[in-house]
Amino acid sequence: MKAVILAAGEGSRMRPLTFTRPKVMLPIAGKPILEHLLLEVSAAGITEFILVVGYRDEQVRSYFADGARWGLKISYCQQTRQLGTAHALKQLEKQLQADFLVMNGDILAKSADIAALAASSETTLGVFEASDPRRLGVLETDGSRVKRIHEKSANPPTNLANAGLYFFTPRIFAAINNTPLSLRGEYEITASIQMLIDSGLAVGYRPLTYWQDVSYPWDLLDLNASMLKSLSQRICGQVEENAVIRGAVEIGEGSRVRSGAYLEGPVIIGKNCDIGPNCYIRPATSIGDNCRVGASVEIKNSIIMDNTKIPHLNYVGDSVIGQNCNLGAGTKLANLRFDGADITAGGVNTRRRKLGAVLGDGVETGINVSLNPGVLIGAGSRIGPGAVVSGVIEPNSYIG
Fold it and tell me: Disulfide: which of 150, 225, 272, 383 matches 284 by Cβ 3.0-4.6 Å?
C-alpha cells in the first residue's frame, strides 16, 4: 500500500515562519512535522510514499530525498498550482491502481490508528471529536456510514470532525474526475467523497485515538512540550565539569555544554551547538543544530531553529525563533502582558497568558531590544538598538 502525503501548501497562518519554508518543514521536538508523520505511517507498516509538493518544494526534496535514510521509498509529485486535494490526487491516478492512504502533511497521528485505517475495505475517513467543530468539516452519519460531509457549518450536526486522513480504493478517481470547482476555487476531495455517497457507495469512518494539527505558530509550542514529555536521556556531545543536567536532556554530536550551564529537561539540543557558560535552559525547549546560547541567557519553553545565536544577556520565553537569527546583547522577549490578559498575535486571540515572540528566518536585533508579547517579525528584518517592538513587522523591515 502507498501513502500519499499532501505537502504542497505554504500555511499562511503560520507566517512569519512560512515566508521561507513550507509548513510541513516546521520543527517540533527536533524534527519537521512531516518527519514525525512519516515515522508514524512507517511504524504502521507502510514504507512507500508519494509526497505532493509545491511551495518551496526544494526543502522537502533535499531533506527527505528518496527516503533511504529511514528505510523508506519516497517519490514526489509537483503540484505547481495548489488547486485542492482532488486536483493533487488526479495527477496520481496512474500511480495509484490499488488501495491507498491520503493524509494532510501538517497533521500528527499515531501508528495504531493509521494501521487500523489501512485495514479498511471501503472508502473510510479518519475522524476525531472536536470541541468546536464549526471551523472544520464535520460528518453527518447513519450508523457506521457517512451520510453527508458539512464544511464549516454554523450549526454542525455532530462533533465528528474530518481529520484529513483517508483510506481510498481506486473507485475514488471516477468521482475526482467529475468533481467541480468549489466556491473557494479548489477541487476538494470532500466533494468527491460526497459524490461517492450520493451514487450509493458505502463510505465509512473511523475515530482516531490521537490527532493534532498545527494552525498557528504558537501551536508548535504546545506540541513541542507534549512530545518532549517522552524524551529519553541521550548525551552525544561534551559536557564540561560544573555543568548541571536535570531531567531528560538530549545533546547532539559535536555540541559542547560549558561550565556553569544549567539544563533542566526535557530539553533537546542539536548537533554542533555551543551552550554556556552560565546559562539556564528550562523545560520544553528545543534547540536546533549549529546554535549558540551564551552567558547569562535564559530560555524557557521555546523552539530555536538551526544556526541561530542567542549569545549575551538574553531572555527568551514561550517563543519560536527561526533559522539564522542573531539576538544582540540584552535583547529580551517578553512573554506576559503587564495586565495578565490573553495575548493577541497578528490580530488573533491566542488564548494564552504566556507567549513571547515569533521571529522569521534571518532576523537580527541590536543591543537592549525589547520585544513585547505576541510580536511577529518577518524574515530578514533588523531591529535597531534600544527599540521596543509590538505588533506585526513585515519581512525585510528595519526598525530603528
Answer: 225
